Amino acid sequence: MSTPIDTADEVLSGEAVAIDVQPLGFFMRALGAAIDMAVGWILFILFLWLRFWVFDRGIGDSSIDGILAIVAMVVCFVIVPIVLEVALHGRSLGKLAVGGRIVRLDGGAAGFRHAFIRALIGVLEIYMTVGAIALLTGAFTARSQRLGDLVAGTYSQRVRTPRLTALSPVIPQALAGWAQIADVARMPDRLARRISQFLQHAERMSPPARARIAQELVDEASAFISPQPAAHPEQVLIAITALRRERERRALAIADARAEKLTGRRVGV
Predict the structure, then answer these.
(1) Considering the domain boundaries, does residue 5 fall inside one?
(2) Phi and psi for 161 in degrees, rounded to 5?
(3) Quick check: is 132 in a domain?
(4) Same domain, 89 and 122
(5) Residue 203: left if φ>0, alpha if ψ -120 to 50, beta else—which one?
(6) Which of 18, 74, 109, 152 could crosslink 117 through cysteines, CB 3.0-4.6 Å?
């Protein structure tokens, strides 16, 4: 029985293929927003310092002081965030620091319209309320979306992910003889993924949990293995994975050979 797709963690491509994505977590997003807010306030404080310096020397016209203050607020809190987000393709200084990027709900790149809506609403939910509205909406949405994201149809996607180490299992020496006569049937995709993930993270598990999970996986996989090997459960999982990889490699090689043979025949004709 197939499980429904969790739309909070997957998007559909143009070919209706589910793509696994990772939204940026709430705390990392809050940290990035705090950095962006600090940048905006620093720019505004620099303007205030410059304004006091100019008017103290009688250079500026006091009649336009209020207008300049409004212009500075618009530049620091609206225009600068829009320019950064558009120029950096959905990123800002805060998002660069935490490894996030603003994208559309379908996973596509966000544009000027999305940045404009987010920046405009951000004045209310970030600067006027010191981030209170953004924190509340982010805490109660599946993808940590703030109010501007909900209106613009965007969310913050994680772009800095841990590098995965390639898994190249080798049949243990103790099971070399068994591997010559073993018959490993096709397993359910979910079970195969669980075995692969266990082998990737086994070294970081505690010994009791590692032994227990290995035995549980062997018990589930035993229905697809003949004959049953007599070895440590983790060695059995490594041998199963190695045999499946080898079988898939041979199947691909046979398919490539057939394709080359058919291509050669058509050329000859």
Answers:
(1) no
(2) -115, 155
(3) yes
(4) yes
(5) alpha
(6) 152
Distance CA 104, CA 90 (A): 10
Decide if 118 is inside a domain: yes
Q: Are 9 and 20 in contact (CB under 8 A)?
A: yes
On whether both 140 and 194 belong to a single domain, the answer is no
* Domain assignment of residue 92, given as a range: 10-158
| Spatial separation of the C-alpha atoms in residues 182 and 226, rounded to whole Å | 6
Give the pLDDT of the chain (269 residues) as one tens digit per residue: 333 334 444 444 443 433 445 788 888 888 988 999 999 999 999 988 887 777 766 665 666 777 888 888 899 999 999 999 999 988 899 888 888 889 888 777 889 999 999 999 999 998 888 888 988 998 898 888 999 999 999 988 887 655 544 556 788 888 888 888 888 888 888 888 888 888 888 888 888 888 899 999 989 988 888 888 888 888 888 888 888 888 777 777 777 777 667 655 544 44
Query: 3-state DSSP call for residue 68?
Result: helix
Residues in the chain: 269
DSSP 75: I
| 2 domain-assigned | no
Instruction: Give me the sign of the Cα torsion angle 86, 90, 95, 96.
Output: negative
Q: What's the count of helices (H) and strands (E) in the chain, helices before strands?
A: 11, 6
**Residues facing 184 on adjacent strands:** 225
Q: In this structure, are residues 52 and 60 in contact, taking their beta carbons and an 8 Å threshold? A: no
> Both 27 and 78 in a single domain?
yes
